[in-house]
From TrEMBL:
The species this protein was found in: Hohenbuehelia grisea
Name this protein carries in UniProt: FAD dependent oxidoreductase domain-containing protein
InterPro entries xrefs: FAD-dep_OxRdtase (IPR006076), FAD/NAD-bd_sf (IPR036188)
Top-level taxon of the source organism: Eukaryota
Any Pfam family the entry gives: DAO
SUPFAM superfamilies, sorted: FAD/NAD(P)-binding domain
Domain FAD dependent oxidoreductase residue range list: 42-388
């Protein structure tokens, strides 16, 4: 059972991430917020993050699209985890193999990793094809190895993946000296490099929603779906804070909040809070000296800091996880507040990892942090497809 016994809906006054602070001019941010919802729709999508946005676009960009598609969003449009992430579009290149194969077997583990790689290429093609200005930066990323224990784990995962026939053609090992030189992280015991990207996910999501709205999507912001009940076989009533919609098809793109409307998912989808930060670099990391790769500076599997410097403005997005974050994650899933101790620990770790960082001038260093709620599954893969035990037509799409 989930430790959350009551249904939990997105909190009404969430803190703002960097991605949100830089996109508040978007004219569709509060679309339909004061209107009543229609009484009927062909499709109702609940949630306006990347999952909901892509579903809407795929449905409408179709030779025979549904004639009316409605999207309900409890808060501002695109304000869930998509608006709160740490900037990475970073496939798992090899490291997850050990954990995935233990849970799903070798064949599935290889497929999961292959799929992650494919998603990066699909994202790249999609963004380029549609010309979405979302600061997409296709670059190299590195796992920077900071402990002997983690070095051994990584080596084992790498060689097991290799022995199982996994594709390592894009993966490069860097020994300690080279790793320190290339990453500028003192103390690196080694590094592993592969292809990934960074992006501004809110700009991406807004770009997709713009295209979907141009094709007829109606969005209702500040409109919480409160329940989904069956009227009769194949027909649903979506009750919301702005009226009830009757529809044959419901798409749950609610991520961490899924079990509020589908309570039996409470034991499967666990809401977990994570935190990221905006950091202005010191002079040594500006201009010609920006970091050229993105990093996961890793002390262990559960103790790491993600570092993604944006070529567009030099800002560093600093995310991560450690024991303190694990404890913080047990908090009620509210993304209104920021844990100051996690923020100061993260910036301290960044300062100590990058020996060129030096003393920060006024205006440099940690600017602010934000939190977001992830939807975690016990088998570490997303739950996508028809909702088990419900008639087909009632569709579930969730991304972890
Ligand atoms: C701090 C942090 C860092 C992360 N870093 C990365 C990263 O670097 N790279 C990466 O790939 N992923 C990262 N993630 C994960 C990634 O952000 C999510 O997996 C992804 O954005 C999920 O998209 P989604 O559309 O499924 O869900 P969301 O974006 O969460 O969208 C769900 C939406 O549904 C709405 N909603 C929920 N319930 C209701 C309801 N009853 N009625 C109406 N609306 C409702 C919510 O308000 C929300 O807008 C991070 C997440 C966090 C929190």
């Amino acid at each position: 059972m989930s430790h959350h016994d009551e249904p939990y809906f997105p909190s009404s006054q969430p803190c703002l991430s960097y991605w949100q602070r830089t996109t508040r001019h978007w004219s569709r941010l509060t679309s339909g917020a004061n209107e009543s919802v229609p009484q009927t729709a062909d499709v109702v999508i609940i949630g306006s993050g990347l999952s909901g946005a892509l579903v809407a676009y795929e449905l409408l960009y179709n030779p025979s699209p549904p004639s009316n598609v409605v999207m309900l969003e409890a808060r501002e449009v695109c304000s869930g985890a998509t608006a709160r992430h740490a900037g990475h579009c970073r496939p798992d290149a090899y490291r997850g193999y050990s954990a995935y194969s233990a849970k799903h077997g070798s064949e599935q583990a290889i497929k999961i990793l292959r799929h992650e790689k494919r998603v990066l290429q699909l994202m790249k093609t999609f963004i380029e094809t549609h010309g979405i200005d979302c600061d997409f930066n296709y670059s190299k990323t590195v796992d920077v190895i900071m402990s002997q224990h983690f070095l051994e784990y990584v080596k084992r995962s790498y060689s097991d993946f290799d022995a199982a026939g996994g594709d390592l053609s894009d993966v490069t090992w860097l020994e300690s000296e080279e790793a320190q030189k290339i990453t500028r992280v003192s103390g690196a015991l080694g590094a592993v490099e592969w292809t990934a990207a960074t992006l501004h996910s809110v700009k991406l999501c807004q770009g997709i929603l713009d295209m979907a709205m141009d094709l007829g999507l109606a969005i209702f912001a500040n409109t919480t779906a409160q329940s989904v009940t069956m009227v009769r076989d194949g027909l649903w009533n979506v009750e919301s804070s702005r009226g009830t919609i009757t529809t044959p098809t419901v798409v749950h793109a609610t991520n961490a909040y899924a079990s509020s409307l589908l309570p039996f998912l409470g034991s499967i989808i666990q809401p977990l809070r994570a935190q990221a930060h905006a950091v202005i670099p010191t002079q040594a990391f500006t201009g010609q000296s920006l970091l050229t790769q993105t990093y996961s500076i890793r002390y262990s599997l559960v103790d790491f800091y993600s570092v993604a410097q944006r070529p567009r403005d030099g800002l560093i997005i600093l995310g991560g996880a450690n024991e303190e974050i694990q404890r913080d994650r047990l908090n009620w899933p509210d993304d209104c507040s920021v844990n100051k101790s996690i923020a100061s620990n993260a910036i301290e770790r960044l300062r100590s990892a990058l020996s060129e960082w030096k003393e920060e001038a006024e205006g440099e260093g940690l600017q602010y942090g934000w939190t977001g709620i992830l939807g975690m599954t016990p088998d570490s893969v997303p739950l996508i497809g028809a909702v088990p035990s419900l008639p087909v037509g009632h569709t579930l799409r969730l991304i972890q």
